[in-house]
Amino acid sequence: MAARILIIEDNAINMELMVYLLGAFGHVPLGARSGAEGLA
């Protein structure tokens, strides 16, 4: 079962890696660069 996962990370490389890995495992990653952006 795919989960929607919110990733809040200000480092672009870390964000890309987490989005890629979670997507590869069948999840739906949503990315945000800051806490404020993640809550918007």
Say how many strands there are. 2
Report the β-strand fraction as a percent range. 25-35%
The domain tally reads 1
Widest β-sheet, arrangement of strands? 1-2
Largest sheet: 2 strands, parallel
Principal-axis shape: flat
Distance between the termini: 26 Å
Q: Helix and strand succession?
A: EHEH
Radius of gyration, whole Å: 10 Å
| Chain-averaged pLDDT | 95
Q: Structural class of the helices, strands and pairings?
A: alpha+beta
Helix residue percentage: 40-55%
Count, helices:
2
Q: How would you sum up this structure in a few lines?
A:
This protein is an alpha+beta fold.
Q: What brief labels describe this structure?
A:
single chain, alpha+beta, flat, two-stranded parallel ribbon, 40 residues
Structure description:
The chain is of the alpha+beta class. It has one domain (4-39). It has helices at 12-24, 35-39; strands spanning 4-8, 28-32. Strands 1-2 form a two-stranded parallel sheet. Helix 1 links the parallel strand 1 (4-8) and strand 2. The chain is flat.
Question: What is the topological layout?
Answer:
Blueprint (H helix, E strand, L loop, with lengths): L3 E5 L3 H13 L3 E5 L2 H5 L1
Parallel strand pairs: 1-2
